[in-house]
UniProtKB/TrEMBL annotation:
Signal peptide (UniProt feature, chain positions): none
InterPro entries per UniProt: Alkaline_phosphatase_core_sf (IPR017850), Phosphodiest/P_Trfase (IPR002591)
Protein's name in the database: Ectonucleotide pyrophosphatase/phosphodiesterase 7
Pfam families xref list: Phosphodiest
Amino acid sequence: TKEKNLDFIALYFGEPDSAGHKFGPESPQRKNMIKQVDRTIGYLRQRIRESGLESTLSLIVTSDHGMETVIKTNEIHIQTVANFTFKDIQFELLDYGPNGLLVPKEGKLEHVYSVLKNAHPNLHVYKKADFPRRFRYANHSRITPLLLYSDPGYVIHGVRCVPLERGRGEHGFDNEAMAMKTIFRAVGPAFRRGLLVEPFESVHVYALLCELLGITPEPHDGKLLPLEIPGWGVAHAPATPGHDLLPAHPTLRAPQPRTQMICRSLGFNW
Ligand SMILES: [Zn+2]
């Protein structure tokens, strides 16, 4: 609110994720849930208007994944793989969908890898060092020596008879799969109206938020997307007295009208 002078507000909706898991992405239940969430967003925008904040508040609506239908016959059971035993495993993180993390016991890495590598045509098994770079995932100390992921529609079963969070829909598949794509919509003084842009990765949203808020970003993997397109301007976050909000990028030093803010989005525009 104006009185409290907040700079950044984040809202998280647990739907339609829950309905998507339980009933599947194509189900009427999930479609109804999407309508409900859409009404809620409509209410939010209405209250922004009624509160006189439309000219000063920029709103971004996005999510972190899509949803894929899981078919029962497409389950991958690690326990049934020939020559595989959990006795060779020191630590496992399985049963959470299409991903798995394994720490083999000392001296067992090569054996476990060779046993699982070609165990199932829709299961991908990697040693940490060989995990595809495009996932931006394996270059971290918390990631285990062996990594597993399955193709869209397939989920990995490990040690539990009743899998966790398992229903008719799942996410966490390869982010190049169309069903994993999500939405990005933005409206407000920081964004150009009616602009439709090419798809982009969500890893870049952080840089955009930092730019809008006049914050110097911490180290991250994203880029400030609008800067890559010649001639496209970027507006500055609303000026706060005592703060220099001019971005460091040379093309941005000259103040520009805020309506020139470019933001990439996918799909329809407000
Ligand atoms: Zn979920």
